[in-house]
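Q: Could you predict the 3D structure of Transcription termination/antitermination protein NusA?
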Amino acid sequence: MENIALIESFSEFKDDKLIDRVTLMAILEDVFRNALKKKYGEDDNFDIIVNPDKGDLEIWRNRIVVADGEVEDSNREISLTQARKIEPDFEVGEDVSEEVKLADLGRRAILALRQNLISKIHEHDNTNIYKQFKDLEGEIYTAEVHHIRHRAIILLDDEGNEIVLPKDRQIPSDFFRKGENVRGIIESVELKGNKPTIIMSRTAPGFLEKLFEQEIPEVFDGLITIKKVVRVPGEKAKVAVDSYDDRIDPVGACVGMKGSRIHSIVRELGNENIDVINFTNNEQLFITRALSPAKITSIKMDEEAKTAEVMLKPEEVSKAIGRGGHNIRLAGQLTGYEIDVYREGVEEDVELKEFTDEIEDWVIAEFSKIGLDTAKAVLEQDVNDLVRRTDLEEETIKDVMAVLRSEFEE
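A: Sure. Here are the predicted structure tokens for Transcription termination/antitermination protein NusA:
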């Protein structure tokens, strides 16, 4: 195989893979040196000259001339007779540089060399892709649906890079068709073997935060700061915002007139209900705001234990808890406090865990999932509503209510 034929294929790699000349030369030299090591045992006495732009390659082996019959290392030494076949005026002790033709390496070695080159090019590509997307972690990215699987959607970007959107990183209401564009954040990038695995997420709080940056100029410009984001993807989210400029109303700026600014974000997230809240270092006030839309009568806080007992009027309790218990749970995550709700005018109540002798733990857990942790909290609910919000049957709920009522009738 002629040098030029092999080098022409190297130039194709440069064009196809967009590898710069210096990098390609370094890869080529590394590949050839590996081939020389296999053929001659070592490579440090070889000079390799690569010019992929011109399509040529030269390999020169450097040896010392020794007297005939005194060659001990055929790779580093050459007999006087052999040296004079290259140039007739060589003498013992002089250095000889002799060009090595690719054909001298053997057909099998050349095929292996090309395969090694392909492997090195792919490794270089994968490393570059890994670095590129590692720098994009936490940033919004758009790619096209290429293949829909049961546990994930495979996306391709404009450069043909494969991105995985797992099922558990999709919003429950997400439904995508092949060829459709999908937005999310690059959540993680890992090298598995030599191939990068790029994971996209639409459920991470960071996705909502980045959407705020994209859609709300004051957030992008840094005039409004997002302090914290908590989400139940596709259901509800709470975003705490702050501004160091007293002239700016951070909540008003984020929501916009009649919700005009936040509407596109809500639509992107499958109509996720987003509460935007003014951040404050006053923890009591922050809890009050976090439990919006409920209006709180009073709060008793334990800052060391990070617990808060919140008193509300009976009609405000369901607002504080929210559908599926989402509101109170997100308020707790946003503020860092464990929040317990109490009804104003009710002097005594009993926690459900006190009834474990009569009510099974898994039943109590079902009520806790929707924010109902006390006897009176359950008794104030409608049976049909509880059937809808829990996995409990109507008969089970009525039995529980009977047990709880007996506690207060004694």
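Q: Anything worth pointing out?
A: The first helix runs from residue 3 to 17.
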